Amino acid sequence: MEAERLVQAGLHALGESRTAHDIVAEAWQARALAQAIGSHLALCGPLELRGEARGLSEAGEYPTWGAAGPRAARLTEVGDPRSALTALGELLGEVGIALVGVASVTDDESLYWQCMEAIDAADEAGDRVRGMLRRLDVREQGRARPPDPPRRRAGPPPATTPHPRSPASPSRPAPEPGREPEQAQDRERERERDRARDH
C-alpha cells in the first residue's frame, strides 16, 4: 500500500480510539510506519534524504503486536516523498497530542510510563521527518536558482583603429612682432612714388 494511504489509515484509527490503551497502541503503529517509510527512503529515496532516513529507520522496542500485526508491514511504495513525509509528520504530531492527554489524566503508573516512552519515540521520529523536509526544501531551492552566467576569460583589450586625420592646411606665417607699422609705411611710400611717376 502507498505510504500516504497508510498514514491516512493511521490518522483514522487514532481518531477512532476510545481507550488509553488504544491510543498507546496507535502511537506504536505510527512509530512503526515511520520506521518503514524511513527504510524505504534510505534505499530508494533521493540521495539528500538517505542519511536522515537511515536514522528514522532504526529499529526500536515495540510491544507485542496483535493478530493483525503492524500496519506498516503493508507498505509497498513511497510515491511522493514530500507528501508522504508531510502526512507522516502530521500523524506523529497528532499522536503526541493524544499521548499527552492520556498521560495527564491516568493514575496507572505503568500506563503513564508507556505514554512517556511513546511520546519520546514520536518526538524523535518527528524531528527526523522535519529534517528530511528541510533537505527537500534546500534541494528545490537549488534547482530553482538560475545558473550563473559564463565568465569571460581575461585577455588583451581589442585593438582600436585610429581615426584618419585630415591633412593640415598650410597656414600663413604670423608677422613678426613690431613689424606691422614699418610694413605699412613702406607700402605708403611705394604708392607715393607711383603717383609721382604718373605726373
Describe the structure.
By secondary structure, the chain is mostly helical. Helices cover 63% and strands 0% of the residues. α1 packs antiparallel against α2, α1 packs parallel to α4 and α3 packs antiparallel against α5. It starts with a helix and ends with a helix. The model has no long low-confidence stretch (mean pLDDT 82).
What can be said about this structure in brief?
The chain is 63% helix and 0% strand. With 199 residues, the chain is mainly α.
What fraction of residues sit in β-strands? Answer: under 5%
Main β sheet profile: none
Question: How far apart, in Å, are the first and last alpha carbons?
Answer: 140 Å
* Assembly classification: single chain
What pattern of helices and strands is seen along the backbone?
HHHHHH
Low-confidence stretches: none
What layout of secondary structure does this protein have?
Elements: H1 3-16, H2 20-44, H3 50-56, H4 81-105, H5 109-144, H6 180-198
Helix pairs in contact: 1-2, 1-4, 2-3, 2-4, 2-5, 3-5, 4-5
What labels describe this entry?
single chain; 199 residues; mainly alpha; 6 helices; 0% strand
